[in-house]
Design a protein that fits this description.
Elements: H1 3-19, H2 21-31, H3 40-50, E1 54-60, H4 65-77, E2 85-91, H5 98-103, E3 113-117, E4 123-128, H6 133-138, H7 143-152, E5 157-163, H8 172-179, E6 187-193, H9 200-205, E7 216-221, E8 225-231, H10 236-245
Parallel strand pairs: 1-2, 5-6
Antiparallel strand pairs: 1-3, 3-4, 5-7, 7-8
Helix pairs in contact: 1-2
């Protein structure tokens, strides 16, 4: 609604109230909606994000042996990470927390359950009923992983450039993807260096030598699939073909990357059985 429309409605409402003050006041009292209960957990998430911290949400139905055990493990695992994370508890039956219960779809999940959130809102872990300190530690991810997870959860493709020690221009495929109408709104890019100690976990997962001199490009697709790892000279078409082969391209029947390769003389037609 634009500003003029709002002003017009305000003027009309004022005129009506002046002509029928008693009726208008009565209507205002009966029509005013009840204020939604405040969510303490949501406030904790927002504050943690401002502070650059992770939030560990522990959802539970009742205070029982299982929830007490999970809470104890959580507190112990994060006891030395107070500068990195906060813990907040969410009783799934609390009316004030229904927005979070719905958002993370935990109303019917086995309880208790922990959901870990990075400062940017990316969900980095979900642990049901039992958890170990090691698993909770894995919920802390690298800056590039955090960025990638957030975008993957928003159903976007992520192209990660891993720079080696030798200076090199950005892979040509990056600009080509960004200018392609088919991909530009559904792909995001990020660059990191292989030797960055903060990215050691991701570099290891990508199976890249942190001492490498060359540049690599990795393509990630929702929900968290590594489509492939490519060298710096790989073209957009090569990467897009790998995406289509992995079934992660699109549903557009006219997409050239989504087409089956034409049969040749050495490819006989399939026979029915």
């Amino acid at each position: 609604m634009n500003l003029n429309s709002l002003l017009t409605r305000s003027v009309l409402a004022t005129a009506f109230a002046l002509s029928l003050p008693t009726f208008a006041m009565a209507q205002a009292r009966t029509a005013a909606p009840a204020a939604a209960p405040a969510s303490k957990a949501q406030a904790a998430i927002e504050q943690a994000a401002k502070d650059g911290k992770y939030t560990f949400l522990m959802f539970y139905k009742t205070t029982d042996a299982a929830s007490n055990a999970m809470s104890a493990t959580l507190k112990e695992a994060l006891s030395e990470k107070s500068e990195q994370a906060v813990v907040t508890y969410v009783q799934v039956g609390n009316p004030a927390e229904q927005a979070l219960v719905t958002k993370y779809d935990v109303s019917r999940a086995p309880m208790p359950m922990i959901v870990s959130l990075a400062p940017n809102g990316a969900m980095t872990g979900m642990f049901a009923q039992k958890v170990t300190a090691e698993k909770l530690g894995d919920a802390f991810v690298t800056p590039t992983m955090m960025f990638a997870m957030k975008n993957l959860q928003e159903n976007k493709l992520v192209l990660v450039t891993v720079q080696g020690s030798a200076k090199a221009p950005a892979p040509v495929a990056i600009k080509d993807f960004q200018s392609d109408p088919h991909f530009k709104d559904r792909i995001v890019t990020i660059s990191m260096t292989a030797a960055d100690p903060q990215e050691a976990k991701l570099v290891g997962q990508l199976q890249i030598d942190p001492k490498t001199k060359v540049t690599h490009t990795a393509l990630l697709a929702p929900p968290g699939v590594m489509v492939g790892k490519f060298d710096a000279v790989a073209s957009k078409d090569e990467i897009a073909a790998a995406l289509a082969k992995a079934g992660k391209c699109c549903d557009d029947p006219n997409c050239k990357h989504h087409q089956a390769p034409p049969r040749t003389a050495t490819q006989p037609p399939a026979t029915r059985r």
